[in-house]
Write a structure and sequence with these properties.
- The chain is α+β, with helices and mostly antiparallel strands.
- It has two domains: 66-143, Pseudouridine synthase, CATH 3.30.2350; 146-265, 2-Layer Sandwich (Pseudouridine synthase).
- It is 44% helix and 24% strand.
- The chain is built from eight helices and eleven strands.
- The strands form four sheets. A four-stranded antiparallel sheet has the order 4-11-10-7. It has a three-stranded antiparallel sheet with strand order 1-3-2, with helices on one face. The chain has a two-stranded antiparallel sheet with strand order 5-6.
- Helix 1 runs antiparallel to helix 2.
- The longest helix is centred in the N-terminal third of the chain and has 43 residues, at 24-66.
- The chain is elongated, with a radius of gyration of 34 Å.
- The N and C termini lie far apart (81 Å).
- The relative contact order is 0.11.
Length: 268
């Protein structure tokens, strides 16, 4: 823009110079002054742009820092808990005005986010999510009690201990009664020992057991560990299905509970 403006001034002054030669020096000085003014204006414009960019980044940082707390988020069936967090983080950053390319480069530094206990991909329910300073409160969430409604199926076992896995064994269940199941539940109430499922987020040599299993690698079961079941009741019995209401502590696997109940009933 500065070069174009100087050319226009020079052309106009040349016409004046043809009529009044003695003013040529004045015309040259005027052109130089105009060029300097234009250059100064360009520098000022660049400075304003830089200031606006800095202010924009500052405003963005303020927005991101204001995203803080603990929230209850509904997790539908399908996505893993980690996938849901990634989706939520992307939406929050977009809401704060951070462009996707910038978010992709800086997502690890811009916004802290975590959850207070994993829900399986096949499960739906409340996922406790901590954002910003709220992530520091998640430890207390993990140590608190949780309540689940679980549906088990008698007579069938899968490699994942849920309905998404491959069936590995089948047995008859027609002789199992509601009273049988209610009697078995008493054995799984209180402080008990539980073996975590092989398909889980627990790690071996830094890798998730579920990842190793999907690769076809041989994985040994983790040793049984202490867990707590505060309450356990049978809500519905419609063979082969039964519905449980479970309140338990942290580190508890509903899949393992249902599998153990099936084994105890000798109907898997």
């Amino acid at each position: 823009m500065a070069a174009a403006e100087a050319a226009v001034v020079s052309s106009s002054l040349e016409t004046d110079t043809a009529r009044v030669p003695e003013t040529a020096g004045t015309a040259a000085a005027t052109a130089a002054t105009s060029s300097a003014t234009a250059a100064a204006a360009a520098v000022a414009a660049a400075a304003r742009t830089g200031s606006e960019a800095t202010a924009s980044k500052a405003a963005l940082a303020t927005k991101l820092l204001s995203l803080s707390g603990v929230f209850a988020v509904h997790k539908p069936k399908g996505p893993t808990s980690a996938e849901l967090l990634n989706r939520l983080k992307e939406k929050l950053l977009a809401e704060a005005g951070m462009p996707s390319p910038e978010w992709a480069k800086r997502k690890k530094q811009t916004l802290k986010i975590g959850h207070g206990g994993t829900l399986d991909s096949a499960a739906r329910g409340v996922l406790v999510v901590g954002i910003g300073r709220g992530t520091k409160m998640l430890t207390s969430m993990l140590s608190g009690s949780k309540r689940y409604t679980a549906i088990g199926e008698l007579g069938k076992a899968t490699d994942t201990l849920d309905s998404t896995g491959k069936v590995t064994e089948e047995k008859p269940y027609d002789k199992i009664t509601q009273e049988d199941i209610e009697g078995i539940l008493q054995k799984f109430t209180g402080n008990i020992m539980q073996v975590p499922p092989l398909y889980s987020a627990l790690k071996k040599d830094g890798q998730r057991l579920s990842t190793l299993m999907k690769r076809g690698e041989i994985v040994e079961a983790k040793p049984a560990r202490p867990v707590t079941v505060y309450s356990l009741s049978l809500q519905k019995f419609q063979p082969p299905f039964f519905t449980l209401d479970v309140e338990c502590g942290g580190g508890f696997y509903i899949r393992s509970l249902v599998s153990d109940i099936g084994k105890a009933s000798k109907a898997l």
